[in-house]
Amino acid sequence: MKNTGMTRPLDTLGRIVVPKEMRTSMSIKAGDPLEFYLDVETGFLSMRKYVGVSCNLCSSVKDLTYFRDSFLCKTCILDLKGNKGVSQIPAPAVKEPYKEKRANRSSSKKLAEQLRRLMHEHPTAKQGEYAEWLGVSQGRISQLKKLL
Prior knowledge:
Blueprint: H1 20-25, E1 34-39, E2 44-49, E3 64-67, E4 70-73, H2 74-81, H3 108-121, H4 127-134, H5 138-147
Antiparallel strand pairs: 1-2, 3-4
Protein name: Transition state transcriptional regulatory protein abrb
Domain SpoVT-AbrB: 14-39
Organism: Paenibacillus terrae (strain HPL-003)
């Protein structure tokens, strides 16, 4: 059971309005019969659309058997056992998990040493130029400078 978080008051005649969202999801229209179930020990009241006593697959009322909260007729049971009228459901296509392509990155120590060498060779170069030469961002150059 799922808690919907919806509450509705009883009116003076003891009636309750079933929220539209629930009626829509359960395919309940005005005038449809409903079944009510009550668990006296827990005080739990539930309802569902009344489908009557007929086969859930073909709506037949002959030779019914109750199976897993549903009525099935003998003909439908035999058809299911023999896989008659059953179509194969194709297996869903399995997508490869997304893997972000990561560039081969050098270690911080290696980049710091390369930056130190570049700073000695080109002391007047700007931070953007160092970033371009090393193939990293300007922010990474700032981090590397702090390591030095």
